[in-house]
Structures are given as structure tokens and as C-alpha cells.
Design a protein that fits this description.
It contains 45 helices and 25 strands. The chain is an alpha+beta fold. A hairpin with a 3-residue loop joins strand 14 and strand 15. The chain starts with a strand and ends with a helix. Involved in vesicular recycling, probably as a RAB11B GTPase-activating protein.
Length: 1077
């Protein structure tokens, strides 16, 4: 590898380098200890250790070339090499292309300038053919080249960055370098002669977290395939962990959760870049955190962050925090415990005033009403965009239609409701009203008490951020309704089925008004987001939204919940809900350890809490109490649900500790939820579910929802948003890997009934199969194989491989991988397994090729007998039936006579299937014989096998000749038998290749004279079974475990050598020949 010329003081390096070659202008050196017997002794080991620990990029290359000029003590490093062949190639190039030119220069400075320019030109030329760019830092370029050479990954693998770190094996640290690329986490270390090379694919990681213990103050814990790996570093550990988290998340989403990945255009842009830089990942992560924290549209990109003070006018206090600026918003969040935050849409900015230029203070006056207060910051955005705040008219909220408030007859509950409204009006007067209002601790206190009925829809829209979505897309909902109504899809069918099940006790959904509104909202959303479409529990949530919000507002609230506040909740595998369940269980272990110890081994938490998260407690609490929970959810997000769940468990702790099984614990919680009331609810008794409870359930004391929520805030309010998001990221990997493990268990349970592999071997085989599927997706974002992966399909169909991938696995696992016809055999086998002609096979089909049980073998092939008149298909079925039959009798001694009797019985039982099998003509038989010749090449009994082939072919032809004579005694057929006898003698003399060609040539010449020669399938099989050499070859046992271990080590390298285009073309051509496409 050519290097950017750098000065080297040679006298300080003589102890580390040994001279190999030199001339007047160049020196070739070898690193001490490399290539020497015994590793160069202690000096060589020390040098190798220094290279791995102290070098700024990675292990030092063992060879290098220096440029020198006479009478100069300064040398310039211009090339390095990992092998003698590589460095010799560079040396020879210098001698042939540079040495002759240097003699024309007059001064040493001119010579050095020319050499440096020449080397830089070579580096630039090399960069054109790779994905590295000239503007990349030189140090990164060197690290990149060494990364490629050290790990041998395909050229398409993009290195993101690398860090110096220690890898802990037990209590011993190994200093080395951690490389982070798009698909792999790699580590390399060389310490006192011990080399450690580690490659972990991101999709195999089930746990990624920062940990600390007695030995390590802080380290990164990576768990993959049940193995734990620990990495520690002095610098950049937070940066490293964030980048690892991003790369692992992207890999998991792309490979396991493609329905959300395909809609994320930012990710696709990042992976399409030829050069990936850590800042692009960091910026995206910060933008995601920014938009999630402030409930902004996902498209918002964080541009700038500044520390500042915000003047809070109603408290006369400067709140210290951070100001975040994006294209359309200016946001502030305090960091001094005052819980003050502000969101200012630039569309609402009315005035900008610089109060004191020298103190860098400015004032923004924002809002849609005169009561809004000015916001006083110490930084000013570079550009402010003024936009109109358009409003769209929609239907009224259902609650105002079915339960209008009577202003004249105010009972005590209505008076309390009016007092709540007055408290909020005071808050609006002090802190502003609208998106840009100040949000403080007092705001949360009022939310905990319950939002008034009249303000609930408006504040839900405000706190969820749905108001921003609606303001930026006027008329969008009306357009969706027009497009979606009348459509007939699976989602619309499910919606129609669930419409009457949505709050059926509420009068609003006992009429066409409520049902029609619910239908329009759900159908419009399914049309907007077909990846989610419709999921159960969406109808319950949308029903509550329609009670308090207008129809269009309810739609945007649903968008905010499904796509931003509860990500991945409402997809086919409800991954988001499972992730939050795992977060909830982690919080239980921290805050309620007694309950965790008692419930160990029970599925209580996962079975009970799922509905809490999916429906925000609406399905378990009375409606008048559930809406208070929804209030807190829209203000605090999932944190409110987690806090309430912990409070519920703590409230019932004593009873749960006495439970002996899940059913008893569920009963305890159901009784508790039935006892939850909302004493301040203004809803009429006919609507309140809690008021309809009978006295039979009155043994449990009543619990007010406001008190329960307040207690959850007091006890668990210290749970931070940042901690919840961190736990979400950490548990997401675990949840997805758990789902994948479940898929594997179901697949193996089904497949194990049809194959003869041990459970461990079948498990390893599945991992190879799945890994081959992923390897085709690593370096192609839009891989066609990836498009076929669908988690909603049956377990067996979730992972399938194409013809090319099957070829690679056959080369790695088949005992005939050395055969010259191995590609043809793989192609035939794949075509046989691809029953639907989709170009894909699943794991069951793949494993049956390698080890189907004999009792099930024939049923597969009888389906292949009705193939028309295609000679290629005929050859395929005949040869494969022979090959796979022999592979099944590979263990233990085989009774040939018993098999012949079994075969005869099968012919009698299934005569109607066998009789339709065409006879093999001469050209097909010759091709079949050539395949056998190639199959036996390199076998210890190769000579005997060739003789057996000659005997079988001669016998078959003589049998056919006798049959022809019996039918037509005057028919001239002797010449063909003679030709076969000649071909039978050639293999016995050791001239296998000549025999094959002579058999084909002479046979073909004779066949042209007589086109009526043919052989029955039974004749070929019986003749082959009469040759002991054939039987020994096919019954030779092959240890599948050894081949699997070898395949695991070679699978990644095989991807770099395989030629996909040629084999895929041959597959489609052969499919076209047989008329299957």
C-alpha cells in the first residue's frame, strides 16, 4: 500500500527494522521478528506488542519502503506491505518506473519532490477505485486499508471509525483496536505473540450496554450468541457506545423490521453515502432525541444547540438550560430542576427584538393571542421563517354532542370542573396559551389533577405535538378520507369487524354518528400508513380520542401516538410494546425487588402488562378514570404509563406476594382496577363504568385515580426521560433476538420431524442458513432477498434463500463440493426443491436436501414425475433420485437385496406414478455417465468407480440390445454395444478424461444412427446397486458436524469469491429451458 510521504529518522528505527534491500534512492525493510523462526525471540514479541498497543492506526505492516537521498539523514516512508509479495511488487515498480528518471535531476530536493508527487498521484489513482475519497483524513485512510487487509471482509463493507481499546478475556486485558463498520464490530490485538481477531455482526448482538464493576470503572458489554464481550477505553467511551448503539439499531431494523426501516429516508441516505462518518450518525441520533423529547415531527433536524438563560417573567427568574434550533422550531429545556420548557414554532413568531447586542440577548414575541408572553433568550437564530397558522374546520367532539354541559344547573362535580377550568385559564394568562406556552412544574400538577372536559381535546393536541402536524398539513385529512372511503383491503375488513366493539357501552358508539367517525379516522390512517394499516387496540384508543377531539384532531392524535409517542407498537409483531414491557420489568427489578423475587419463573408481568401499554390502561380502567391516564400520557409520554404501572403493583404488593400462580395475581389486579374511581368526573352516571359496579365487588376499598396518579409521580417521578429512552434502545435488541429465537425454535420443531440430524446439528445448520440470507443483504440496502423477508409470514417462510445462496451453502456442506459438476448438481437440486418456481426455498426444503428421512423421501419425488416431455427435467429427476437415495443409506451396512425388494413393492403400489416416467434416451444417458465420472474424481477408489461405471453402462446397453433383439431380431444394434465395450476399457488404464470423451463421442455417433435406444429408471437403479464400489461410495458416512464447523469459518470468505451473475444467469436459463418460468 502506498503511503503519504512522511519523514522518518532512520537511526531511531534501526532496532525495530531489518534491512532487506537497498539502492541509491530506496530502502526496503522488514519488521524485526516477522518471518523469523520462533517469531524473532523476545525482541520480536516485544516489537509486535508495541506495534499493536502504541501504533496510531493498527498493527504496523511487517514491510516498508523508505525513500532516501545521498548525504541526507532524513528518510521518507512511501509504502508498506502485509506480505513479501506485496512489498516486492511495489519495489519492482519503483525500479522499473522511477529509478531511471531520478538520474536526470540535479538536486536532492528535486528528487524528493518528484518522488513525493509520484506517490501522491498513485494514492489518488488508487482512491478512484475504492469508496474512500481523497478528502478523507490520511490517518483514516491507512486505518481503512489495514482494516480491509486484517479482517478480509468484502470491499463493500464500509468502515465508519476505529478506536483504541482493551478487550477483556477474563481478568486479563488485551490492548488493541476496535473497528466499527456498517455490518460488523471487529477487534484486533497482538500481544506478546498472541493474536486476537474478533468479528461480530450487528444483527447477532442481543445485549449492548455500558457497565461497571470492581475492576472496570466503565466498559461496554456486548453479548452475541450467548457469549459476553467487554471493551474498555480511556477516551471516547460515550461516543463509542452511542455509535455502536446506532449501528446495531440500524442493522436490526434493516434486517428484522424492514417495514419501519423502508420508510426512514434518512437512514437510506446515510447508507447510500460512499463514505460514512461518525458525525452523520451522531447528528441523526441527536435529531431523533430532539424531536422525541419536544414531540416535534420526525422530519425535524437539529441544527444548533446553545447553552442559555431563559427569562421566566411570571417568576422573575432566569432558567438555565439549552436552546435547540431546527428548521421550523426553537425549543428550550431547563437543566436546573425548574422543569421549564418552551416550544416556539417559527410560524408563530410575530416579532424579534435584540435587547442588548453586547450581552447577546434577544426577545421573541410568539403566539396567536395577546396574552402570550415574550421569550427572552441570549442567542438569536440565523434565520426566522414567518408562516400563517391555517385552521381547518371539522366536526365537533362527540362528548360535546352527547354530554353537553348545563351551565345553569351546576352540581358539586360541575362546580369542581369549573374550578379546574379557572385554574387553567389563570395558567394560560401567566404562561401563555398555545404551542409556545411555558410548561413548568405547575403545568404538570394541573395535568395530574385531570384536565377539564372542555379543554381536554385542545390540550391533548398541544402536548402530543399533533397540533404541529395538523398546522403543517391543512386539508390532508379531508383528502385522505375521500381517497380511502370505499377501498376494500384486509385492514378495512378488520376495521369493520371491530367498530361495534369500541366502547360499546358509550352512547356515542351506539349510533351511526360515532361509528361513522371512527370508521373514517381508522380507514384514513390505514390508507396513510399501509405498513401499520390497522392493529387491534387502535379502535379503543381512537374511540376515546373522538370523545374529546374533533374528527381531524383525533386523526392527528392517532398519528402522533402510533408514529412518534409509541413507535412500533401497532405493527404485526408489536415490537414497541414488547420493548416497553422489557423496560417495565427492568424498572420493577430496580424499584420492587421483592415482587421480582416472588414472581421469578412466572409469566405474570408479560401477560398482564401488555394491554396496559397497548391501550394506555383504557381496557382495564373505567372510562372516566382512564382519560386521566391519557392526560398524563400526552404530557409525559410513556414515562407516565411506566410510573402508573409501578404504583399499581406497589399498591397491591402485599396481595401479590401471597399469590401462588398467575391466575390468582391477575384476579387481584382486576379487582383493584374495578375499584378505581374518579370522584371528580362530571360524566353522567349512565356513562361512568365505575358507578355501575355492584356492591358484590365492594370488598376492595375504592381508589381515586387522581390520588393514584399523584402517588406515582411522587414515588417514581425521578425516572428520567433519557433513562427510559436508553433502556428502550438496550431492550430493543434483546426483544428482537428473543423473537428470532422463538422463530428458530418453531422452525426446528417442524423440520426435525423430517430430517435425521441431531438437534444441535440442526440448530447450527439453521444458523448457517440464516446467516447466508443476511450476508446477501449486508452490502445491498435494497436487496431482493431482503424484500422476501416478512415477519408476518409463517415461521418456515420468514427466511428463504435464492439459487445463488443455495449454491454457496452446497459448496460448503456437500460431500461432492470437489466435483467439477458441483454447480450443476446444486442447480438441479435447487430446481427440484423450488416447487413453486419462485426462485426461493425455505429451511425445511434446504435441510431435507442434506438429510431427509428415508420414509419420507419418495413422496417428494413422486410429485416431480409429471413434468411433461422436458428431457432436462427428466435427467434432473433421475440423477437426483439416485444421488439422494444413496446419500440416505450412508450410515450402517445396507442390505441391497432388501432394498431391491422394497423398491419392487413400491413399484407395485405406485405403478400409476412410475409408469409415467419417460425412459432415458442415449444423449441423456451419456450426460448422466459424465456426471458420475466427475462426481468420483479424487476419490480413493476412483479407479474402481470408473470401472464400475463402464460395467454398468455396458450392462445396460447389452440388456437393451437383448430386449431389442427379442422385439425385432433383425435390428442392427451390435455397433453400439461394441462402442460401449471400448469405452469400458479406457478407465481401467487410468485414462479417465480420454474415456469420458471417447464414450461421449463414439456413443453420440452411434446414437445418431439409431434414435430409439432408451433405458428405464428401474434398469439404471438395479444396475448401479449391483456394483459394490457404488454402494461403498454412497454409503460412506460424512460427519455433518465437521462440515458445519468448517462452513462457519469459511462462509464469510466464500461471499467474496463467489460469482453471483454467472450462476444466476445459468439458473434462469435452465428454468427457461424447462418451461418453469
Amino acid at each position: 500500500m502506498w503511503l503519504k510521504p512522511e519523514e522518518v529518522l532512520l537511526k531511531n528505527a534501526l532496532k525495530l527494522w531489518v534491512l532487506e534491500r537497498s539502492n541509491q534512492y530506496f530502502v526496503l525493510q522488514r519488521r524485526r521478528g516477522y518471518g523469523e523462526e520462533g517469531g524473532g525471540g523476545l525482541a520480536g514479541l516485544l516489537v509486535g506488542t508495541l506495534d499493536a498497543v502504541l501504533d496510531s492506526t493498527s498493527k504496523v505492516a511487517p514491510f516498508r519502503i523508505l525513500h532516501q537521498t545521498p548525504d541526507s539523514q532524513v528518510y521518507w516512508s512511501i509504502a508498506c506491505g502485509a506480505s513479501r509479495e506485496e512489498i516486492t511488487e511495489h519495489w519492482d515498480w519503483l525500479e522499473h518506473n522511477v529509478m531511471n528518471i531520478l538520474s536526470v535531476f540535479d538536486s536532492n530536493e528535486d528528487i524528493t519532490s518528484f518522488v513525493q508527487g509520484k506517490i501522491r498521484g498513485l494514492i489518488a489513482e488508487e482512491g478512484k477505485g475504492s469508496f474512500t475519497k481523497e478528502e478523507d483524513p490520511e490517518k483514516f485512510r491507512e486505518g481503512l486499508m489495514k482494516f480491509e487487509r486484517c479482517f478480509g471482509l468484502p470491499e463493500q463493507e464500509k468502515l465508519v471509525t476505529y478506536y483504541s481499546c482493551s478487550y477483556w478475556k477474563g481478568r486479563v486485558p488485551c490492548q488493541g483496536w476496535l473497528y466499527l463498520s456498517t455490518n460488523f464490530l471487529s477487534f484486533y490485538s497482538f500481544l506478546l505473540g498472541a493474536e486476537i481477531k474478533l468479528i461480530i455482526s450487528w444483527d447477532a448482538i442481543s445485549k449492548l450496554e455500558k457497565t461497571s464493576n470492581v475492576i472496570l470503572t466503565e466498559s461496554i458489554h456486548v453479548c452475541s450468541h450467548g457469549e459476553d464481550h467487554y471493551f474498555s477505553m480511556f477516551l471516547h467511551i460515550n461516543e463509542t457506545f452511542l455509535l455502536m448503539e446506532q449501528l446495531a439499531t440500524y442493522a436490526v431494523r434493516r434486517l428484522f423490521d424492514k417495514e419501519t426501516f423502508e420508510n426512514d429516508l434518512d437512514i437510506l441516505k446515510i447508507f447510500h453515502f460512499s463514505f460514512l462518518s461518525p458525525p452523520s450518525f451522531f447528528n441523526r441520533a441527536h435529531s431523533q432525541q430532539f424531536s422525541a423529547f419536544f414531540r416535534l415531527p420526525k422530519e425535524e433536524t437539529l441544527k444548533e444547540v446553545h447553552e442559555c438563560f431563559l427569562w421566566v417573567p411570571f417568576t422573575h427568574y432566569n432558567a438555565h438550560g439549552k436552546m435547540c434550533i431546527s428548521e421550523n422550531y426553537i425549543c428550550f429545556a431547563s437543566q436546573d430542576g425548574s422543569l421549564c420548557s418552551v416550544i416556539i414554532p417559527l410560524r408563530e413568531v410575530m416579532q424579534t427584538t435584540v435587547r442588548a447586542p453586547y450581552t447577546r440577548r434577544f426577545v421573541l414575541v410568539a403566539g396567536s393571542s395577546a396574552s402570550d408572553s415574550p421569550k427572552d433568550f441570549d442567542e438569536v437564530p440565523s434565520k426566522i421563517d414567518l408562516r400563517d397558522n391555517s385552521k381547518t374546520v371539522s366536526t365537533e367532539a362527540l362528548m360535546t354532542v352527547y354530554h353537553p354541559q348545563d351551565a345553569e344547573n351546576l352540581d358539586p362535580k360541575m362546580l369542581k370542573e369549573k374550578m379546574k377550568e379557572q385554574s387553567w385559564n389563570i395558567l394560560f394568562f401567566e404562561r401563555g396559551h398555545g404551542v409556545s406556552m411555558f410548561r413548568t412544574k405547575k403545568t404538570r400538577d394541573l395535568v395530574v389533577r385531570g384536565i377539564p372536559e372542555a379543554l381536554r381535546g385542545e390540550l391533548w393536541l398541544l402536548f402530543s405535538g399533533a397540533v404541529n402536524d395538523m398546522a403543517s398539513s391543512p386539508g390532508y385529512y379531508t383528502e385522505l378520507v375521500e381517497k380511502s372511503l370505499g377501498t376494500c383491503t384486509l385492514a378495512t375488513d378488520e376495521i369493520e369487524r371491530d367498530l361495534r366493539r369500541s366502547l360499546p357501552e358509550h352512547p356515542a358508539f351506539q349510533s351511526d354518528t360515532g361509528i361513522s367517525a371512527l370508521r373514517r379516522v381508522l380507514t384514513a390512517y390505514a390508507y396513510r400508513n399501509p405498513q401499520i394499516g390497522y392493529c387491534q387496540a387502535m379502535n379503543i384508543l381512537t374511540s376515546v380520542l373522538l370523545l374529546y377531539a374533533k374528527e381531524e384532531e383525533a386523526f392527528w392524535l392517532l398519528v402522533a401516538v402510533c408514529e412518534r409517542m409509541l413507535p412500533d407498537y401497532f405493527n404485526r409483531r408489536i415490537i414497541g410494546a414488547l420493548v416497553d414491557q422489557a423496560v417495565f420489568e427492568e424498572l420493577i427489578r430496580v424499584h420492587l425487588p421483592q415482587l421480582t423475587d416472588h414472581m421469578m419463573g412466572m409469566t405474570f408481568f408479560s401477560s398482564v402488562s401488555l394491554s396496559w401499554f397497548l391501550t394506555l390502561f383504557i381496557s382495564v380502567l373505567p372510562i372516566e378514570s382512564a382519560v386521566n391516564v391519557v392526560d398524563c400520557f400526552f404530557y409525559d409520554g410513556i414515562k407516565a404509563i411506566l410510573q402508573l404501572g409501578l404504583a399499581v403493583l406497589e399498591y397491591n404488593m402485599d396481595k401479590l406476594l401471597t399469590c401462588k400462580d398467575d391466575a390468582e395475581a391477575v384476579t387481584v389486579l382486576n379487582r383493584f382496577f374495578d375499584s378505581v374511581t374518579n370522584k371528580d368526573s362530571p360524566l353522567p352516571p349512565a356513562v361512568q363504568q365505575g358507578s355501575n359496579l355492584t356492591d358484590a365487588k365492594g370488598d376492595h376499598p375504592k381508589v381515586d385515580i387522581t390520588d393514584l396518579i399523584r402517588e406515582s409521580n411522587e414515588r417514581y417521578g425521578d425516572i428520567r426521560y433519557e433513562d427510559v429512552e436508553s433502556m428502550r434502545c438496550r431492550n430493543r435488541l434483546y426483544v428482537i433476538q428473543t423473537l428470532e429465537a422463538t422463530t428458530k425454535q418453531n422452525v426446528l420443531r417442524v423440520v426435525s420431524q423430517d430430517v435425521k440430524f441431531s438437534p444441535n446439528d440442526l440448530d447450527e445448520l439453521y444458523e448457517l442458513f440464516k446467516r447466508e440470507h443476511f450476508l446477501s443483504c449486508y452490502w445491498n440496502v435494497n436487496s431482493p432477498v431482503l424484500e422476501h423477508h416478512d415477519a408476518s409470514l409463517p415461521y418456515l417462510e420468514q427466511y428463504r434463500i435464492d439459487c445463488q445462496q443455495f449454491r454457496v451453502l452446497c459448496h460448503l456442506l456437500s460431500p461432492w463440493s470437489h466435483c467439477a459438476n458441483r454447480d450443476s448438481i446444486a442447480l438441479w437440486t435447487f430446481r427440484l426443491m423450488d416447487e413453486n418456481c419462485h426462485g426461493l426455498i425455505n429451511f425445511k426444503q434446504f435441510s431435507c436436501v442434506l438429510g431427509r428421512r428415508t420414509t419420507h423421501m419418495h413422496s417428494t419425488f413422486t410429485r416431480e414425475l409429471h413434468f411433461g416431455s422436458s428431457p432436462e427435467r427428466y435427467l434432473l429427476v433421475c440423477s437426483l433420485r439416485l444421488f439422494i437415495y444413496f446419500s440416505q443409506i450412508g450410515k450402517g451396512k445396507v442390505d441391497i437385496q432388501a432394498y431391491l425388494k422394497q423398491w419392487q413393492d413400491e413399484l407395485l403400489k405406485k405403478e400409476e406414478n412410475i409408469k409415467d416416467l419417460p425412459r432415458m434416451n442415449q444423449s441423456q444417458f451419456i450426460q448422466f455417465s459424465k456426471t458420475l465420472y466427475n462426481l468420483f474424481h479424487g476419490d480413493p477408489e476412483e479407479e474402481l468407480l470408473y470401472r464400475a461405471i463402464a460395467v454398468v453402462t455396458s450392462l445396460l446397453l447389452k440388456m437393451e440390445e437383448v430386449g431389442r433383439r427379442l422385439q425385432s431380431p433383425t435390428s442392427p444394434v451390435r455397433s453400439l454395444a461394441a462402442t460401449t465395450e471400448v469405452s469400458a476399457e479406457s478407465p481401467q488404464k487410468g485414462q479417465e478424461e480420454g474415456s469420458s470423451e471417447q464414450t461421449e463421442g463414439n456413443g453420440a455417433q452411434s446414437l445418431r444412427k439409431n434414435h430409439e435406444w432408451s433405458f428405464a429408471f428401474e434398469q439404471i437403479l438395479a444396475s448401479l446397486l449391483n456394483e459394490p464400489a457404488f454402494v461403498r461410495f454412497f454409503e460412506k458416512p460424512h460427519e455433518i458436524k465437521t462440515r458445519i464447523e468448517s462452513a462457519k469459518n469459511l462462509q464469510l470468505k466464500a461471499r467474496t469469491r463467489v460469482s453471483e451473475v454467472d450462476f444466476q444467469v445459468s439458473y434462469f436459463q435452465t428454468c427457461t429451458w424447462t418451461g418453469t418460468w
